[in-house]
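Ticket #4471: structure export looks truncated?
Reporter: QA, pipeline team
Priority: medium

Steps to reproduce: submit the single chain below to the structure queue and open the exported record.
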Amino acid sequence: MTEKPDTHSKTPLRKGFLRPAVRWLAIGAVLLWSLAALILLAARWIDPPTTAVHIQRHVQAWIHHAPYHERYSFIPLGQISPDLQHAVVAAEDARFYQHHGFDWHEIEIAADEDLEGGRVRGASTITQQLVKNLFFGTGRSILRKGAEFTLVPVAEIVLGKRRILEIYLNVVEWGPGIYGAESACRYYDGTAARNVGREQAARLAAILPAPLKRRPERMNKYSVLILERMSQMGW
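Actual output as written to the record:
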């Protein structure tokens, strides 16, 4: 007669291992979230020296042994052309000054289009994109979305709209190794961000949804749409 394995003796051991592991994972998650919240608070006064996207691109270049030159220059919002500010808002988040971090109207439209089997529509706000740029890089996951969802209200409260826009315009990716409005304007147009005109601004804003693939000289169709939206918004 064969003896049955003693499963009862293993179950307590498994539970004894899982409970501390889950507890430490939860503590780690809370600590990381708290650190991110503190970084956002500090960003109210301190310009971010780098972001998760910047680090991600460095690592990708190192893995693929590709040449990589980073252009990153942080300047005050007052030194960025109002036309460029308005073009980016019109292109990326037309209701930026009306919502509190999440544009539920756009989210509803995106969900309806997704359910109908149509083209999936992006609904991320500038605040959401800033949080993603600072902490999460370009990857996608449910966990990342959950963490982003909890940090967006913190960014809205501690930074405010002006500082959110200022940081976003300075850290966002505008091409391979090109970060921020000043670097983009000097690279593509050979001028400072304060000197960019309306049409130049619209072409630069049209790059943002796919900065590694698009170039401003090819963005005429998209830039016309952005200019029309700017006019509709009273700019």
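Status: closed, not a bug. The export was complete when the record was re-opened. Leaving a note from the reviewer for reference: The two ends are 87 Å apart (CA to CA).
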